[in-house]
């Protein structure tokens, strides 16, 4: 693998809300590639540094069998799971979960993608509750030779990541709701910019106000949707 295999999307903490990290152990060669890319980025863009969100993004991969090559576009999590079967064709759920860095219940849900594609088979030992996953022989896999399945496996992961961002931002912004209510009680109505600047001026303790104008606008829109505030002609009012 070379650095040509990576196409990075760079997001700045100045413009994006915090994104919740999820534990994921990517395979060694991939992890080394990410480290080399980040090192080179730092050399070119000093003093900027990259902090990888390894659970986000997409991975294009090929699974080579004796008589066919199957192509997939999947999440990093799904790619990390199937790459564990390169050198070891059979895993128990507990050992595979430890290798990938996931809770067993999460692994058991995510691995269903590869089972549904006929790439892996699942079995349960009679004297054990631990599941066993085995790579299916090439002659038994579904699909045609050279078929291309451009399928983003695990859309649920992406939806869950977006939801976690929104939930986290809402939780952080809720701390300032009482300040906003107090300001609108005193002033009657305020524009977005004035609310933003007032919070920056007075919320300097713990927690200090460090949100962007766009994050504040998103939070205020939520309060309007909850009918706690009203928005008329660019001015926010307390809902009567």
TrEMBL record:
One Gene Ontology term, aspect cellular component: nucleus
InterPro entries: ANAPC2, ANAPC2_C, Cullin-like_AB, Cullin_homology, Cullin_homology_sf, WH-like_DNA-bd_sf, WH_DNA-bd_sf
Gene3D superfamilies the record matches: Cullin, Chain C, Domain 2 (3.30.230.130), Winged helix-like DNA-binding domain superfamily/Winged helix DNA-binding domain (1.10.10.10)
KW Nucleotidyltransferase (keyword) present: no
Organism ancestry: Eukaryota, Viridiplantae, Streptophyta, Embryophyta, Tracheophyta
Protein name, per record: Anaphase-promoting complex subunit 2
PROSITE patterns, sorted: CULLIN_2 (PS50069)
Source organism of the structure: Abeliophyllum distichum
Keyword Cell cycle: yes
Alphabetical UniProt keywords: Cell cycle, Cell division, Mitosis, Ubl conjugation pathway
Domain Cullin family profile: 1-115
Family: Belongs to the cullin family.
Gene Ontology process terms (BP): cell division
């Amino acid at each position: 693998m070379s650095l040509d295999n990576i196409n990075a999307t760079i997001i700045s903490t100045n413009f994006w809300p915090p994104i919740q990290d999820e534990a994921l152990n990517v395979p060694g060669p991939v992890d080394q590639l990410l480290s080399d890319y980040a090192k080179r980025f730092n050399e070119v863009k000093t003093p900027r540094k990259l902090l990888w969100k390894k659970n986000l993004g997409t991975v294009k991969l090929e699974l080579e069998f004796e008589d066919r090559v199957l192509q997939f576009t999947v999440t990093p999590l799904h790619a990390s799971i199937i790459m564990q079967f390169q050198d070891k064709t059979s895993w128990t759920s507990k050992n595979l979960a430890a290798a990938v860095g996931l809770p067993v219940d999460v692994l058991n849900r995510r691995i269903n993608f590869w089972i549904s594609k006929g790439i892996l088979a699942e079995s349960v030992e009679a004297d054990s509750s631990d599941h066993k996953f085995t790579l299916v022989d090439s002659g038994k896999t579904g699909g045609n030779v050279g078929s291309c399945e451009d399928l983003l496996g695990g859309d649920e992961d992406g939806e869950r990541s977006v939801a976690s961002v929104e939930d986290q931002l809402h939780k952080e912004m809720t701390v300032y709701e009482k300040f906003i209510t107090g300001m609108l009680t005193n002033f009657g109505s305020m524009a977005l910019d004035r609310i933003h600047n007032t919070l920056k001026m007075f919320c300097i303790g713990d927690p200090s106000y460090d949100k962007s104008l766009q994050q504040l606008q998103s939070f205020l829109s939520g309060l309007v949707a909850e009918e706690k505030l009203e928005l008329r002609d660019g001015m926010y009012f307390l809902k009567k």
